[in-house]
Each structure stands twice: as C-alpha cells, then as structure tokens.
Write a structure and sequence with these properties.
Layout: H1 2-25, H2 53-61, H3 65-76, E1 82-86, E2 89-92, H4 100-116, H5 129-145, H6 147-167, H7 170-181, E3 187-190, E4 206-210, E5 215-219, E6 227-231, E7 239-248, E8 251-261, E9 273-277, E10 289-294, E11 297-300, E12 309-311, E13 317-319, H8 324-331, H9 334-361, H10 382-410, H11 417-445, H12 457-464, H13 474-485, H14 489-503, H15 509-515, H16 517-541, H17 545-565, H18 568-571, H19 577-594, H20 598-603, H21 616-622, H22 624-628
Parallel strand pairs: 3-7, 4-7
Antiparallel strand pairs: 1-2, 4-5, 5-11, 6-10, 7-8, 9-10, 12-13
Helix pairs in contact: 3-5, 4-6, 5-6, 5-9, 6-7, 6-9, 9-10, 9-11, 10-11, 10-16, 10-17, 10-19, 11-12, 11-13, 11-16, 13-16, 14-15, 14-16, 16-17, 17-19
Bound molecules: flavin-adenine dinucleotide.
Residues 155, 189-192, 197-198, 229-231, 284, 289, 466, 469-470, 473, 475-476 line the site of flavin-adenine dinucleotide.
C-alpha cells in the first residue's frame, strides 16, 4: 500500500511539474504524463521519520534554539541577505560576483542592520554563561549565512572586544566595552606580521616607554615587522590591539598587547600610522584585510592591557606572573575563543554541504540496473552512500564535540586553560580539515550542479578555506598538541622509542621531535578522535528509542570509517589484517542501515531552506525558464 501511495505521489508530482512548464511555454497545450522529468522532491524518496526530528535538532543545537530561529528569520526577510527569489522560495546568500569593495561595504551594511535589530545587545557587558552561549548561537547562524560576516564581527567582538575583556582591567572595560558593543569604534587585532605568523613569539614590532610623558612608543623597525592580514584594517577599523615586544630599560619582557587608535573620526590615518590593503583573496573578500606600520606611534600608558603585567608611571615593569612562558600563554588566550568558534563554524559548513548534497542525492537519478527499469536514485548506490554517509556520521560526532567544547570553554577555571587549549587546538584542526574534505566530496556528489553559485558548496569551500591556517595553523597545532601532554599509549610509546633512537645518533631532543612529526601528528589525531567518541556516547545517553538507535548507528559509522580510512592503525600494528578487513566490510552495511534516515538526519540540522544550496529539483520545480532567459543568476532578485 505504502509503495503504491509513493508511486502515486510521484506520478502526480510529475504531472504537476510538466503542466507548469508547458502552460508557461505553450499556453493552451493539452497535457499527458511523461517520464522526461526524472526529478522528485527529496521527501518523495524518503519514508516517515523514525525519530522525533525536533528532539534531534534540540540535541544537536543544544541551546538557544529560539534565538537561532529568530535570527535566521530576520535575515531571510531582508533583501540585504536574500540574493535570489525562486517562485515561493527565497535563497539567502551573499552575492559572490560583486566586486571586492562592494562586498566589503555590504558586510558593513549587514553589520549595522543587525546592530539596529538589537542582535549585539549586551554582548560584552554581560559575561554570564547564558549570554555567552547565546552569542555563540548568533555567530553560528551568521556563519551559516556568510563566513566574511562572522569573521568581520568575530574580529571586532571576539578578538578586539575579547582581548579587552580578558587581558584588560576595569579601566579598559569602562572605557571601551559599551562603545565596542554599540559599534561606535571598530576594532581589529594586529598580531601577525609579514615575517612571523605561526611563530608569534618572534614578532619584531617593538614598544618602549617614555616616563617623561608617560607614553608607550610603538614602532615597526623593519619591513618584516609590518602587521599583515589584519581583518578590518584596510578600510573600516578605527582601533587595534597591537601585539608587540615590550622593551623596558633595554630588557625584552616579551610579547604584550596594547590599544592603539589607527583612524580618526573622518577615517583618516592617525599620526604615525600607515595602512595598505592586502588586496583580493581567493575567498573571504567581504573582509578588508590590511597591513599596518607604526612609525614611533605614541599611546597613553593606560593603553597597555594590564591584567597580568604593567608598567608603573616611572617606568618599572611589574607582573603577577614571573614565568615568561606562562605570561606569553595568557596573552595568547583570546585565540582559544577563536578556535572554539572555528570548530563550530567548520561543523556547520559541513552540515550545509551535506544537507545540500544529500538532498540532491535524493532527487537525482542516474542509470538503470537493467533496460526499461527506472533509473536509480544516487543515494541508492552503495558507493554514493559510502562517500557521503560516513561524512554525515563524522559531522554528527563533530557537532556533539563542538557543543561540549563550547561549554568547557565558557565554564573553564584558570587551571583548565591548558586542557581547553589542547582540545580546542585539536578540534579546530581536525574539524576544519574535515569540513574542507566534506565540501569537496559534496561538490563532486552534486555533479555539475555543484559548480553553480546557488548550490553554495563551491563558495563555502573558498570562503572557509582559510580556517586551516588562521588562529593557529592546523599542522603546527596538531604537533604542539602531541608534545604537550597526551597519553595515547601505543602511539606515545612509539613516539618515545623513535625520539630516543634519534637522540642516540647525537641530535637534540627538539630536533628528534621535529623529525618524528608524523607520529606526533597521528598522536594528536588519535587523542582528538577518542575525546570525540566519548562525547558522542554522552550525547547518545540523552536519547531514547529510535533516536538512540540512529545515533548509535552514526557513532559506529564515524568510528569504523575513521579507522578504515586511517592506515596508521594498520601500519603500527594496532589492528590485525583480519580486523581491518572486517571493518572494511562493516562500513557499507552500516551505511545501508542509515540510508532510510538520511533526509531526516539532515532536516534535524535545523538549517532553514533559504540557507541551503539550490539543488537540481529546485530548478526543475519552479525556475527552469529563468536560466533560459539569459539573466545572470544573481540578478533575478
Ligand atoms: C584571511 C586571513 C585573515 C587573517 N586575519 C588575521 C587577523 O585579523 N589578525 C592577525 O593577527 N592575523 C590574521 N591572519 C594571519 C593568520 O593568523 C596567519 O596567516 C597564520 O597565523 C599563519 O601564519 P603565516 O601565514 O605566517 O604562515 P607560516 O607561519 O609562514 O606557515 C606556513 C606553513 O609553514 C608551516 N609551519 C610553520 N611553522 C612550522 C613548524 N614549526 N613545523 C612545521 N611546519 C611549520 C605551517 O604549517 C604552514 O603550512 C589572517 C590570515 C588570513 C589569510
């Protein structure tokens, strides 16, 4: 019966689509059903959900569902965010065909629209965990719309504002937080230099102190010390946090952070400041990245962010942290928040890509098993399931892990900082790599449609590509991770043996660790995956019935496929060849079991239709003639 109902729905649907087409093209035509259109909405090719999708969505999002829906809705109703309307559907996405300057101005316009609508209210003045979680929900939703928008705001609120909160004291909070929240100042974060990116300790900007005027003097002593890539600096920022070596009485006290104004109220550079544009990028052109030189710029003594170190009016250096390594660690703290945000964004991008590609796989048919048989749905090919469903399972695992990380980060005590640093570094690196890999697979899984701007996936890849290198380069983070404190036994023992062997040849410990980089990186991955598995199991405990069963399948698939694709397990003898073969056979079986749940699993992401990519079905259903008319796809608003 159920089968007959679905077949009936399909036939009815085809007739409706054809009717629409032919009436439009040849008014008055008499119509018959035809099989020439092989697209059906994804819902036709999925049964009813075996679990409660709203409960699954609540488990995935974890907090602030109302805020998320309110913001999605606010954007989907504004022409500033909607690039295209197709029949009764709207598609919210930036126009990536706009010239760079227009994209940057549009980002700013969107920010002020959000400000007028109260989106940033109490973002910095209210430090409660509830308010911080709400902010994170806002970043997530904005990031689903556009990475440039979330980066530009992230630089202003998380890096500039967050540095003032965590590295500054009351006098800084009183002076800067309210005007930051109201966007009366626009802040940026100048850490990276042309000569030093990953190695922040090596930066060459120098700050000295003049007791006669009670001012600091910031200087760019050479070309490699110019600040580079500074988000917001090229056009809009009025102020920056500058990271610089602090020289007191000729002694280098290490990297410190200062507040410095770079533009006046008319947008002109302040005295001693020079700024240049980093120019067009392969993605993220809605952000104005710039270069800054400081030519002996004078700032008041109070502009040193002095939570852990200060300079007295007569020029004495004082610090509550004597150990320079620990002090440096504190100054890097704002980057932890950035890494938590990247872990969330990376998960969400994978979700948008998968929701789009899996919906496509549930509408698109290609080839028949035998002549006269209907063509098969892409998602019914085991190979297609094998390409996409393990990525879906891993994305679920990442979702729970990112949610856990957010809470760990917001609730941390000072003594937890190192743990948060290690976990956020591992998650940031693994998730951003996973997201890029997923988007590429999704783009290919949509065939030619994957290249269409409206499909979103290609642009997401370009816009989010930078995640693997900023806020700590992934490769560097993964090695640091392993060296710090991890105890993944098998790999750790191997690493230990290898390092000792190299040292016995006369090399230093650092040199030995450097040449054992592959083992160190694998150790980092093993650690991260184990933590993710533990978090997944905890999330599963909150579910019951069918939902628990489906989550169990996803967990199994994420672990099995992770092991299956990672030759390190076999190479180092953690798995026998027989175990490896068994896993290899199990992955397709679990994929097949998950297949009926696919649409409901991506629906549970809670990402509304306007924020997903346009799939082939959308074109057939309501838009086939728009393209024929020759208009640019971005101009039909
Ligand atoms: C779009 C964009 C926006 C940015 N926004 C800001 C901003 O607002 N503020 C800011 O301060 N910075 C910003 N940055 C800079 C960013 O943080 C740096 O690019 C990043 O830290 C990497 O530094 P780098 O580019 O100098 O790379 P490098 O440090 O030169 O690294 C190059 C390569 O060398 C490898 N490598 C480096 N060290 C090691 C090692 N020890 N062992 C093995 N391999 C190593 C890395 O893995 C990497 O693959 C931004 C960058 C971009 C592209």
């Amino acid at each position: 019966m159920a089968e007959r109902r679905i077949v009936g729905d399909r036939a009815g649907w085809r007739i409706r689509v054809l009717t629409k087409h032919l009436r439009h093209l040849i008014p008055g035509t008499s119509l018959e059903a035809s099989i020439c259109l092989a697209y059906e909405p994804p819902e036709v090719n999925s049964g009813d959900a075996a679990f409660d999708k709203s409960a699954m969505r609540a488990l995935l999002d974890g907090h602030d569902l109302e805020t998320r829906d309110w913001l999605f809705n606010l954007m989907a109703k504004s022409d500033l965010f909607v690039s295209r309307k197709v029949g009764d559907k709207v598609f919210a996405s930036p126009d990536f065909n706009e010239p760079m300057d227009e994209m940057r101005d549009k980002t700013l316009e969107r920010i002020f629209f959000l400000l007028r609508n109260g989106v940033f209210k109490d973002f910095l003045k209210d430090n409660s965990i509830e308010n911080s979680l709400k902010q994170m929900a806002v970043w997530e939703v904005l990031g689903i719309f556009d990475h440039a928008l979330s980066v530009k705001l992230g630089v202003h609120f998380i890096l500039w504002g967050g540095s003032i909160v965590s590295l500054g004291t009351q006098r800084h909070h009183d002076k800067w937080l309210r005007i930051t929240e109201e966007l009366k100042v626009f802040g940026c974060f100048a850490m990276t230099e042309l000569g030093h990116g990953s190695n922040v300790r090596g930066i060459e900007t120098v700050t000295t102190y003049d007791p006669s005027t009670q001012e600091f003097i910031i200087d760019t002593p050479c070309e490699s010390a110019q600040k580079y890539w500074i988000g917001g600096a090229a056009k809009h920022a009025t102020h920056t946090i500058v990271f610089s070596q602090l020289l007191i009485d000729g002694k280098n006290e290490g990297v410190h952070a200062f507040i410095c104004q770079i533009r006046d109220a008319n947008g002109r550079w302040c005295r001693g400041i020079r700024i240049a544009d980093c120019g067009h990028k392969t993605g993220l052109n809605g952000v104005d990245n710039g270069r800054i030189w400081f030519d002996k710029v004078r700032i008041p003594r109070e502009n040193l962010l002095n939570a852990v170190a200060d300079v007295t009016p007569d020029g004495q250096y004082v610090s509550s942290i004597k150990n320079p390594d620990q002090r440096f660690g504190v100054f890097m703290a704002p980057l932890s928040s950035g890494r938590v945000t990247i872990a969330m964004h990376a998960t969400n991008q994978a979700k948008v890509g998968l929701a789009t590609a899996l919906r496509y796989a549930l509408t698109r048919r290609a080839f028949s098993v035998s002549t006269y048989e209907p063509e098969m749905l892409l998602l019914d090919y085991p190979s297609h399931q094998h390409r996409l469903l393990p990525l879906l399972a891993k994305t679920y695992a990442m979702n729970f892990a990112a949610l856990d990380l957010k809470k760990l980060h917001l609730k941390k005590n000072p003594e937890d900082s190192k743990v948060v640093h290690v976990i956020s570094s591992g998650f940031k690196a693994m998730f951003s790599w996973h997201s890029q890999r997923t988007l590429q697979e999704c783009r290919e899984a949509c065939g030619g449609q994957g290249l269409k701007t409206e499909n979103r996936i290609g642009n997401l890849k370009a816009e989010y590509d930078v995640q693997s290198t900023f806020e700590g380069d992934n490769n560097v983070l993964m090695q640091q991770l392993a060296l710090l404190q991890l105890r993944e036994r098998g790999l750790l023992e191997l690493l230990d043996a290898e390092v000792k062997k190299i040292i016995s040849t006369g090399l230093s410990t650092s040199e030995a660790l450097m040449s054992s980089y592959k083992l160190a990186e694998n150790l980092g991955k093993a650690f991260t995956e184990r933590i993710m598995l533990e978090i997944f199991q905890r999330a599963e405990e909150q579910a019951t019935g069918s939902m628990k069963k489906v989550l169990g399948l996803l967990r199994t698939l994420s672990v099995l496929s992770g092991v299956d694709e990672e030759p390190v397990f076999l190479r180092y003898g953690f798995l026998s060849p027989e175990q490896s073969q068994l896993i290899h056979r199990e992955v397709p079986a679990v994929c097949a079991e998950l297949r009926p749940h696919t649409l409901h699993l991506v629906d549970s992401f809670g990402i509304p239709q306007p924020f997903l990519g346009l799939i082939a079905y959308d074109w057939v259903e309501s838009n086939a003639w728009d393209n024929v008319s020759g208009g640019s796809s971005q101009s039909i608003v």
